[in-house]
Amino acid sequence: MLTWTLQGLWVSLTLAPALAAVSSTKPKGIDVLAFVGLAVWVLGFALEATADLQKSRFRAGPSNKGSFITTGLAVRGPDLARLRLPADHPRERRTPVPVPFLGRRQK
Questions:
Q1: In tens digits, what is the pLDDT along the chain, a chain of 107 residues?
Q2: Is residue 4 part of a domain?
Q3: Which pTM value belongs to this model?
Q4: How many domains would you assign to the chain?
Q5: Is residue 43 included in any domain, yes or no?
């Protein structure tokens, strides 16, 4: 139940800015931040499409039947491909998204 509640909270929090923008009566032009957001989205979409294409080509090969892909963009997890750093890396706290558990090392 807690997971479902947290998902609902997350959806509500991420939906709120979009609802505020759509329901606003004051028109706002497209600014630099909108173009930056669009560029990030296009880059992410292109990376995911490339990973899917590479994985499809790998699976289509008869010599790859039953084996795992070990090269290309599809090797990384889709959500972590651009965020993950090894846990023992000195720059581990410089991830683009603040993740609380990356700052502490388990010994």
A1: 888 899 999 999 999 988 988 888 887 788 898 899 899 999 989 988 998 899 899 989 999 888 888 778 776 655 544 454 455 455 555 555 544 544 444 45
A2: no
A3: 0.51
A4: 1
A5: yes
